[in-house]
Amino acid sequence: MLHGIALGDALGAPVEKLSAADIRQRYGRVTSLKTRWHKMDWAPEARNHRVRGDGIVTDDTLMTLALMDIYGDTKRHLDAWDMADGMVREIAWKPRWVPELQREAMLIDRLFYPEKWIFQRHQLSSCDPRQGGIGNMVNCGAAMYIAPIGVVHAADPKAAYDEAIGFAAGHQESFGLEAAGVMAAAVAAAFVPDTSIEAIVEAAIGVAKDGTRNAIVEIAGIARDLRGTGASHEAVCDAFHAAIAKYSPMGDDVNHSPERVGRLSDAYRPSRLNAIEELPLALGFCLLNDGAFRVSIEDGINSGRDTDSIGVMAGAILGALHGESVILPEDRALLDSANRLDLTASADAFTAVAKTILTADHQAAESRQRARLTLV
Fold first, then answer.
1. How far apart are CA 318 and CA 267, in angstroms?
2. Region 186-198: what's the mean pLDDT?
3. Which domains occur in the chain, in start order?
4. SS (H, E, C) the chain
5. CB within 10 Å: which end of the chain, N or C, has fewer?
């Protein structure tokens, strides 16, 4: 799962915020980690002194690792108080190597504004942790790193959904929070033995609410209709984007600029009718390709817009579904070297923690069952 996240992140990062048409024009089709970032020819200050490409991951992967570390510290299930304590420490007070900045820094130095909100709301405002997400810009920021919650509830999508909602309420609200719950549920469903991408999507739909559910249902329907027809990637993107436009008003206009100041928009504001784009699109490409790992991720990141997060979500779900055999050795090596990480060691450490939590859950369930039998 973790390698799927990092792979989708690093594949999508160099083309983030380009439209599908822009990607086709500039790159043809992105299939390699050794892709040059479209902003690398810009002046350093114009790209915020960041670098991407050649396997470098973004905040999606780093926030996932931070959440794994919180589990490692607590060795138990999490709630919004752990967002207020553990995540604030991880992003604001724990120095780490930030690959895009090519230096050691606090993760908050790299984060987008809705993720910086975690620090502002919890440490600076000392809010009720359950209300931390209120007022935030509604986006995919919680869903992009929530996959570890699916692991500690492996094969139990509803429990993963519930914990993700309880924890991520400290960061997001509305359909941004809902997407985090559904994403965690999809990852949990991927751990069911001998499951399929069809079953995973149905598990996600089974817990999803409001616009998030409707968007996934509609995109999934299109994916099933187009699967096996030989439809081009361009035609699939056009169909997916036409469908998601009813739930996400951003379209290809994802860059903020002085010209957008004061412009009225339904983007990023709470709504029971809307959905983030990334999760429905990721599930759609997974369904389109019958759960095939690499092509689903590549189709997702070549569809444009928030490419790294689409890749992360597809990579997490399909990595959990298929296991480590789908990760190429050369990709594994580049992801580690480019980011000064040891993803296998991180995955092994988190596996041990997840087993501890799952074992405790099973023992508690058995104890409750024995108690019920005694009462009977």
1. 29
2. 98
3. 2-253+267-375 (1.10.4080.10)
4. CHHHHHHHHHHHHHHCCCEHHHHHHHHCCCCCCCCECCCCCCCHHHHCCCCCECCCCCHHHHHHHHHHHHHHHHCCCCCHHHHHHHHHHHHHCCEEEECCCCEEEEHHHCCCHHHHHHHHHHHHCCCCHHHCCCCCCCCCCCHHHCHHHHHCCCCCHHHHHHHHHHHHCCCCCHHHHHHHHHHHHHHHHHCCCCCCHHHHHHHHHHHCCHHHHHHHHHHHHHHHHHCCCCCCHHHHHHHHHHHHCCCCCCCCCCCCCHHHCCCCCCCCCCCCCCCCCHHHHHHHHHHHCCCCHHHHHHHHHCCECCHHHHHHHHHHHHHHHHCHHHCCHHHHHHHHHHHCCCHHHHHHHHHHHHHHHHHHHHHHHHHHHHHHHHHC
5. C
Pick from 269, 278, 265, 354: which is nearest to 316 by CA? 278
pLDDT by residue (tens digit) across 215-264?
Answer: 999 999 999 999 999 999 999 999 999 999 999 988 887 877 888 888 88
Contact, 62 vs 110, CB < 8 A? yes
Q: What is the pTM of this model?
A: 0.97
Give me 241's structure tokens.
């984007």
